[in-house]
Structures
1.
Amino acid sequence: MRLWHESLIKKLPRQQLLGQHRECCALRGKGWGKPHSTVNYVFNYSPYKLFQYHL
């Protein structure tokens, strides 16, 4: 799992952008209960922040 910096999102090719969307959706469900060291930090913040990032 990886979350791209928000300033890079508009430069991502279509496949990476779709992957980013899937990552956000998976994280919204707490990663389906599977911890991942790369993105676990998002759970330290309000779920609203992930929503804002996804927009």
2.
Amino acid sequence: MKKTLLIASLVLGFVSMIGSNAQAQDAKSLWTTLAKVTFKKQYDEMLGFKVDVPIFSPEIKSLEGKSVEIKGYIIPVEGYRGQKEFVFSAFPYNMCFFCGGAGPETVMEVISKEPIKYTTEAITIKGKLDLNANDINRLMYGLKDAELVKSAK
């Protein structure tokens, strides 16, 4: 009985250690998780042609509405309102989605609580992940109530 209890507590300790490492890993590699999306062609009545509609993996769906931490770059885009609303990218400006260097899964719309100062260096922010599969006028990922975690050095 004591041996079984010892083994059970060792297994539980190991599992919790793996879980905490996985959470730390997720903070560093959220872009990798967000890349686990596929697309299907669907006819859009308003546009009159087929558009790519994202199909989010169960792993992505499990993050919806949850607080996540992500590292990336602020992309200056005309039409976004200053430093509280901007596009955030896994890649620097010269390699981002809008320049043809990456896919739509590498960018997200951000709405922050407080203005975040523009920099060309990578920063880390956190906020609630929002998924969008319906509005073709918005990006498929969003981050609401975002806050700066770590600024560029």
